[in-house]
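User: I'm writing a tutorial on reading structure tokens. Could you give me a worked example: one chain, its sequence, then its tokens, then a sentence or two explaining what the tokens reveal?
Assistant: Sure. Here is the example chain.
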Amino acid sequence: MAAKILLVEDSDTQLKFLRDGLVANGFEVETATNGGEGYKKIFEYVPDIVVSDIMMPVIDGYQLCRMIKNVDEIKKIPVILLTVLDKKIDSFWGKKAGAQLFLSKSIDMNELVRNIKATLRRYPLSDEYKAALTSKSSPDSAQARLNVILNDLLLKSVFANEFRNLSDFMNYERVLVEKLFNLVSSFVEYSVAGVFFASPDDFAENILYLDTLGKNLPKSLLSDIQYDFFRKMEEHRTMQNSKFEVVRMLLGKELDYKFTDLTSKIIIPLVFDKKLIGGICFYTRQDMDYASFRYFDIMISELLAIFKMKYQYTEKEFMSVLDGLTGLYNRRQFELSLEQEHNRSKRHPSDFSLAILDIDFFKKVNDTYGHQYGDYVLKTVADLMKSAFRKTDLLYRYGGEEMVMIMPETNIEGAIIPVQRLRRMVEEYDFEYNGVKAKVTVSMGLTMNYQEFSSPAEILKSADEALYQAKESGRNRVVLHEQQ
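And here are its predicted structure tokens:
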């Protein structure tokens, strides 16, 4: 029995040439003049193989091939794409569309026949498979399938484009969040939705933006959602200093909702390159399977792209305030932070402490063991600082071998504990680089925002004076500023 070929070609001349050549070689050939007609004829004719041109009006060969491979009933039918194009990108798209072969139109007829026969041997269709497809086929059902696919392709394209337009607001987080909720709420059912953008800065605030669709919901309910959400995020990264902010909530009577009323939910951590870059969540009082939403996978894919761009933008900003060697904040960031902390403590009366650290005899370390050893000591002391202090404390490299610590909401009695802990950790640490061992100590000056200080510069000066006393009195010790 002759193998059945569906030949799709929009050029009458080329169609006749190919059809006559294939028939002369013993094939049964049915023809179509565009991708849409070809798709319908697959169900009517049930071919053993599809041979299609690429450049055609309405639906081209790539699209036809992708449509065939996306439908379970017909995806086993092999496809050969013919084209006058010869660029690598054309072959790439042919393979990505799912074609078994990508051949030039200038190919000799005998060579084309050999390729068709080889493809038929490699991808044979059973009689049972073709019979089952024939039993389901009718012109009306084929047209209906084509309409569904074309509509689906259009909707997916529009859907994806709406998300990509959000990239215009990448630098304006609050606006981006509002635009995102406006878009998502137009096609996803929820009572509360949440969006979280992760920061590469471990000390940054973790904000879960919540949308209640304008309803005034109890703070206790929103706090429960915050806890539930960040508990899921902590599977990928430690979450501290978290809070929620409500977007678009209108004034009005508070609704009597409880967390247990939200019967359906989905929490999705967004991860790229093994790093948590954000997350989204949906909660609703209705019974709903969010994962079965028609375009759920596209939505997540587009959101991942947006979150990745947002994370990379934040990461670039973050790296500009870090010291490249130690990973601590740099001096410029210290000066900004000290100013901010001083102003905050004036607006909302509270304590904060500040310590300056200097590595004892650091010049001698460099001169004796070399600058690479000195860099190793700096990085190691910085790592010990990170383990000695709280996540909420701010750590900086001030310059050279000097480092600074700001401890918010901490008086000098509370600050002496981690400061002395760090001094002991450095003293007891066995420094070793390239087989060379050394002992290192540090001296530290400690102060706090006493009433006597009217400016950040005065606070810093008092810590520096205390550090000078520590070094003059023997080093490897902590000296506290004496309050006037």
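What the tokens reveal: The two ends are 106 Å apart (CA to CA). The chain has a mean pLDDT of 88.
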